[in-house]
Amino acid sequence: MAISRLSSRSNTFLKPAITALHSPIRRHVSTDTSPITIETAVPFTSHLCESPSRSVETSSEEILAFFRDMARMRRMEIAADSLYKAKLIRGFCHLYDGQEALAVGMEAAITKKDAIITSYRDHCTFIGRGGKLVDAFSELMGRKTGCSHGKGGSMHFYKKDASFYGGHGIVGAQIPLGCGLAFAQKYKKDEAVTFVLYGDGAANQGQLFEALNIAALWDLPAILVCENNHYGMGTATWRSAKSPAYFKRGDYVPGLKVDGMDALAVKQACKFAKEHALKNGPIILEMDTYRYHGHSMSDPGSTYRTRDEISGVRQVRDPIERVRKLLLSHDIATEKELKDMEKEIRKEVDDAVAQAKESPVPDSSELFTNMYVKDCGVESFGADRKDLKVTLP
Amino acid sequence: MAALLGRSCRKLGFLSSGHGARRSVSTETGKSLNLYSAINQALHIALDSDPRSFVFGEDVGFGGVFRCTTGLAERFGKNRVFNTPLCEQGIVGFGIGLAAMGNRAIVEIQFADYIYPAFDQIVNEAAKFRYRSGNQFNCGGLTIRAPYGAVGHGGHYHSQSPEAFFCHVPGIKVVIPRSPREAKGLLLSCIRDPNPVVFFEPKWLYRQAVEEVPEHDYMIPLSEAEVIREGNDITLVGWGAQLTIMEQACLEAEKEGISCELIDLKTLLPWDKETVEASVKKTGRLLISHEAPITGGFGAEISATILERCFLKLEAPVSRICGLDTPFPLVFEPFYMPTKNKILDAIKTTVNY
């Protein structure tokens, strides 16, 4: 739990009594933007650089937004779970619940000009980048109105106008790609950075080290974020990595270890990393996080870890509960207000699901579109070149 | 969805392997096993019979994501059956090194779609090792196993059929079994073959295909194709899971009076040209079917070779019913796949040419 030190400015109305619940002069669910400073529960550990301060500048509005966004993401993932079990979502579905703090904390520190690229656990990252719930559900169910027009599915969400480069199936392949994005940003003098997300499993891919070398050599504004949820599918980190200190594996690249379940710590680290990357080149952020679901919907998630472990993390480190406690202890909202907010979000998600269910499946001609650019005149052949023959658009 | 319904015909149990003097295991009985159990048995036998053999890959320790390696770590120990980190290039390279020291390295790549980081190792290292060292060294003990092929909902990265890429590499062998009994015998042959082999297992059949598999150690020879159904009007050539679909098409064609000869290639590189040639010289027509996209697929090689050898005997152009020239799609899988009806259509067109 965070030890809070309220800034004096924001509390001129209220008496210091925390029992504001009973006070006749009550604050509304706060949209106060005056600064609050909160200290992170866990300190940062650094490699080859200074740690950022544990005191995070935030505001009531921001913390409330964290709560709302994380609750929305959590609800979306749970809805996706039910849809998968109802066979409305087919294929593979990798859920992010438990890791929401990463998505919202990162967004709080950056702009939509900064790029994000990740692997297949991308639903919440998409929402964080401003994606709409109905677009996400449509894509999951393979409908035309999905963010990738129904052709990508769960693992391939993209959002160009928010610089979200997706959504990749082969782990580790997105890392050199992300460094390329960073190079383009540096070249265009955008003052923007790229956050390249990968997991503890992918951290053993050779591509990561190739990309790190290039990024460091050319001082690219690339921030490599290792989402360490401690299990690469079913393999614990201590079984797959000689050095599970992923933030140190960059060797000559500085790194920071962050409590990934604390949205404020994530925000602080990303802010620090962005400043660093723009001045000094690449940096690694290791986010210590946890996923409640298994690797994917085909994985019960309990054959390689105990149910006690999962419920233990849920009780002690859950990102949404943490923010809820903050909101309550700082008197930014009451329990009832938060519960009402969650009810609203639930309805929002249900409405989005219903709307997505109504949308049509893409037309079969879409099978051949977007392979090449127009006017290549390439023909795509079907069986024996007679019946099914299409000149690609 | 339609693909599911079409494929559910496979649940009726595996269609029996037909007549053919070559196969002595064909009439033996054994236990009823599915594909992953047959492969598991083969691995148990391989590790038992050669103390210098190893099985490794991602998640093989607990049995693997398809349960092919169940029980191996418990029986042979963690020094011979072990998990690797997530690095295909590293895994295969490591396997080549182990094989170069005279061991049998049985490598598992979790899905054939993930084999590409290891492509350089396979093509440039494994395939050419014996050649460039003038036979001083070799990595013949290397066998790479990977599940391949469509599964109904696999999408872009869990359904690919990359066999054509590997058939283009002199120096390795490519083998694809069609059923549990075949898989066990072929895998044992691959492991014991003194050349590096890539063994693709049709993942759709892991649970769906059930057959009587003899319990003892037996090997099915490589580079020998098998005529699994005899006929006179047209020759069909395929491998792996696609053969069940082709067999269904043959049955339907028979109702219309067309007698089809179906050949299981088994080994794609080096492939049994003689058997296919003899068959086409008898029937005069050829149809090839595979899940991989048609352009540059292995069917093209078969077509060109048969054309060279049987030109004057051919009554109709060689027909290829394959996947479409698109990335393996998500929702469009039923359109993409070479289904029974597409094959039946082509059989009729070819016969009536």
UniProtKB/TrEMBL annotation, chain A:
<protein>
    <recommendedName>
        <fullName>Pyruvate dehydrogenase E1 component subunit alpha</fullName>
        <ecNumber>1.2.4.1</ecNumber>
    </recommendedName>
</protein>
<dbReference type="InterPro" id="IPR001017">
    <property type="entry name" value="DH_E1"/>
</dbReference>
<dbReference type="Pfam" id="PF00676">
    <property type="entry name" value="E1_dh"/>
</dbReference>
<feature type="domain" description="Dehydrogenase E1 component">
    <location>
        <begin position="68"/>
        <end position="363"/>
    </location>
</feature>
<keyword id="KW-0560">Oxidoreductase</keyword>
<keyword id="KW-0670">Pyruvate</keyword>
<dbReference type="InterPro" id="IPR029061">
    <property type="entry name" value="THDP-binding"/>
</dbReference>
<comment type="function">
    <text>The pyruvate dehydrogenase complex catalyzes the overall conversion of pyruvate to acetyl-CoA and CO(2). It contains multiple copies of three enzymatic components: pyruvate dehydrogenase (E1), dihydrolipoamide acetyltransferase (E2) and lipoamide dehydrogenase (E3).</text>
</comment>
<dbReference type="InterPro" id="IPR017597">
    <property type="entry name" value="Pyrv_DH_E1_asu_subgrp-y"/>
</dbReference>
<keyword id="KW-0786">Thiamine pyrophosphate</keyword>
<comment type="subunit">
    <text>Tetramer of 2 alpha and 2 beta subunits.</text>
</comment>
<dbReference type="InterPro" id="IPR050642">
    <property type="entry name" value="PDH_E1_Alpha_Subunit"/>
</dbReference>
Automatic annotation (TrEMBL), chain B:
<dbReference type="Pfam" id="PF02779">
    <property type="entry name" value="Transket_pyr"/>
</dbReference>
<feature type="domain" description="Transketolase-like pyrimidine-binding">
    <location>
        <begin position="33"/>
        <end position="208"/>
    </location>
</feature>
<dbReference type="Pfam" id="PF02780">
    <property type="entry name" value="Transketolase_C"/>
</dbReference>
<keyword id="KW-0560">Oxidoreductase</keyword>
<dbReference type="InterPro" id="IPR033248">
    <property type="entry name" value="Transketolase_C"/>
</dbReference>
<protein>
    <recommendedName>
        <fullName>3-methyl-2-oxobutanoate dehydrogenase (2-methylpropanoyl-transferring)</fullName>
        <ecNumber>1.2.4.4</ecNumber>
    </recommendedName>
</protein>
<dbReference type="InterPro" id="IPR029061">
    <property type="entry name" value="THDP-binding"/>
</dbReference>
<dbReference type="InterPro" id="IPR005475">
    <property type="entry name" value="Transketolase-like_Pyr-bd"/>
</dbReference>
<dbReference type="InterPro" id="IPR009014">
    <property type="entry name" value="Transketo_C/PFOR_II"/>
</dbReference>
